[in-house]
Amino acid sequence: ETPYERMHYKPATPGYETYESEESYDYYPEYNQWNKTLVKHVLNVTLEGKHEGSLKKLTKLDFAYYHTLNKTLKHYYVDVKTLTRPLVSVFLNLTHPVPPSPFWYQPSFVGKDLVNATLYVTVGNEPEPFVLTYNATKTVQQLKGLHAYDATPLLHWFVPQCLADQYAGNTVSYACRLATVHDAHLNKQVVAFKVPTQVSPKVKSVALKFLSYLKFRMFPYATFYALPLTEQEEYYVVFKLNKTDVNPYVTVAHGELLLPGEKVVLTDLKLSKYLVPNLVLSGLDRLKHSVFEGHPHPPCSVGKNWVRTYDNVSYPLEVRPNCKYLVTSDCSAKHDFAVVAQPLDLTVGTKKLIVQLGPTVVELPPPDLYKAEVLLTVNGTYYVANTTQDVVLPYKWDRKLLVTVYPTSGPHDPPVVKLTNSLKTFKLLFDGVNFFVWVNPLYQGKTCGLCSNYDNEPYHEFVTPENWLVSNYSEFVASYGFGLPQCKEPLVYTLPVHYLEELKKPLGYESSYPTHREYPTHHEYPTHREYPTHREYPTRHEYPTRHEYPTHHKYPTHHEYPTRHEYPTHHEYPTRHEYPTHHKYPPHHEPYPYTANLQREG
């Protein structure tokens, strides 16, 4: 529905009129404004089942999606109805936040990180539906930001480390990846389920059996409390779950289950860290993180001035203008994929990517910051991908190539372009400056490029195309450059201006390093006045004395340790004559204790 005048259209579905909240339509003032920033999709599907020309089954599905560009929320409406037996009506109202940028960690930006869902289920001709509500948001600890990490700095080391890395220009570090995923968790969840009072006994019996089964499964973690019953018995169940990361090894949750006349308190309920919703990870990614215990196969990350390889090794990225660099490629005989980066602006860090998947070559320029779209080229043909239009292309036999663009919640973050194939063996995320590349673990040890060989060996990373192992990352980066003759020449690292000014001083080594007033010298630290001496710590009278601890003797004497009365005698262990005393070793005229024992036994 491209004309703006038709944006007032609301699906004439009974479910929308009955259950739709007033926010779904009046919440958007953009309807009557000039900017027209509302994005809406409406899909109506009718399924008919016929037998010999007569209608046997009829199902209608209505799907609506609303999104405003100046809001950080997405609204979904799903209405499914069967007009033939069995009569079932399902209506879902879902509000989901826009995901944040996976390339930039912003702890101060909270946004509307809130998931709200309401599900109405009506079976047959029941007058009241079953209502299930779900709410997920961040906990108080997450909303406090950096202040929540003062008490447990060792548990969340990646948060201050990521902020330091971002300040240094390394936005794709391992710490930032952990911090971004950790901050995207929605650890506070509330599930409420209401059984209608006027419902058939059969349906009510099934619902109560489900509640009994839920109590049975959680019995080891539950404590039961009695509550006063109300006059009208309502089966209203509320389950609250708060996940905590206090223990770095085990993720536990605490919850409450409110039943008619009963309250069940759950404590130390062990669950997966990635069971809760996450704004950055999809359902499949959360499953992979759960299987691999939070450490799935990592991507290769390329930022403005840094590269993090498949084997989690980071190094600076020094490139030349007008050059192209091979980021990663399948260096086996198949040559399934290759990714080439072409720097466009070294100051900003923008890049152009050239992705080769089989015979298909895709050129990805930086996406538009304001339109949330990208003009890509596939084998010389131009395509436009944006938030409302994906690009699906065949690239090898019956395989498909999918290009999608989705906005981010950050006010200054660019949209993200996602490129995947139907086999899920290749995935790329790109925002114009930073990009992630995932490849299937079957390619381990078969890749080459700036992302290295993916052999799970961090000490075997800088391998050139000639299969030489170099120790200088500048030579390693230059070995994968092409396009111009100077692209193969390593760059000489240029120090910042203030460092160069320091080095120009007469005494460079004194000006570069702190003087004796700033840093302790041998005159100031440590001296006998500032550092504990033998009179302060420890003294021979306080700890230990010659009677308590070995003194000038190198080894314990027979008076201290061991004695023949406390430990085995001289027949089993060396005595004072056989074990070193003040002599360094036994004299030549005495046999070695082990030899003497052998002679006695012989």
TrEMBL record:
Residues 544-565, 580-602 are annotated as: Disordered. Residues 298-488 form the VWFD domain. It holds the Pfam family VWD. PROSITE patterns: VWFD. Residues 580-591 have a biased composition (Basic and acidic residues). One of its GO terms (molecular function) is lipid transporter activity. It comes from the Eukaryota. SMART domains: VWD (SM00216). InterPro entries: Vitellogenin/Apolipophorin, VWF_type-D. This is Vitellogenin. It comes from Rhipicephalus microplus (Cattle tick).
